[in-house]
Amino acid sequence: MRGLIVMLALLALGGCMKVSDLGEGARDQLSDAGLLDHSNTRRSNSLRIQADSFVYIAQGAFAPVGDPYMPPNVVAEEAYNSFIEYFPMVRRAKAPLGLDHAMAEARSFGAHYLLYTRFARADDRIGNSDEWLDQEENSRLGVDSGVIQVMLIETSTQYLIDTATLRSRGGLLTFHDNRPADLIGPPLAKYARSLIGLSDQ
Fold first, then answer.
1. What confidence tens digit (pLDDT) does each residue in 62-116 have?
2. Residue 31: enclosing H or E segment and its boundaries?
3. CATH homologous superfamily for 37-195?
């Protein structure tokens, strides 16, 4: 009788959550504990834009603090890869641009919005044996991190629709051969989803 009650209780509890929910919950817990990659997005506004909006993406010509050797247009490329899944009309600049030049290009293409990004900070820690041979410093061991700043500007009025700060850090289980540029895709995809009102799940 006792075994039957335990079995019924387990079946009842097992029916409360789907396996995918359990997996997502475990991933969130491991991410918060620092074992997997983690990101945090802070937006100034919760405004949404239409999914059929034409978004032009450009990156400022700023070298990030902490890692001046970052590829020059990496944020714009990753933002393009993230936004194309949710916004069918997306175009990106081929090279870093100043804000005025980026706005002029966005208007010339007929874009509704300019997504202007910059890599504000990057900390590339030692993550493999080659980097260890280059630096050989114990204080440089650890997980990579980075900060991206984003502005969404309406091209017709030059009104600042939204600003966001996207912070990312690597995890202890995923830091091998990672660079700060490898961490920026997921937070940019999360930001793209939030712009059209999709949940993070």
1. 888 877 677 889 999 999 999 999 999 999 999 999 999 999 999 999 999 999 9
2. helix 19-32
3. ABC-type transport auxiliary lipoprotein component (3.40.50.10610)
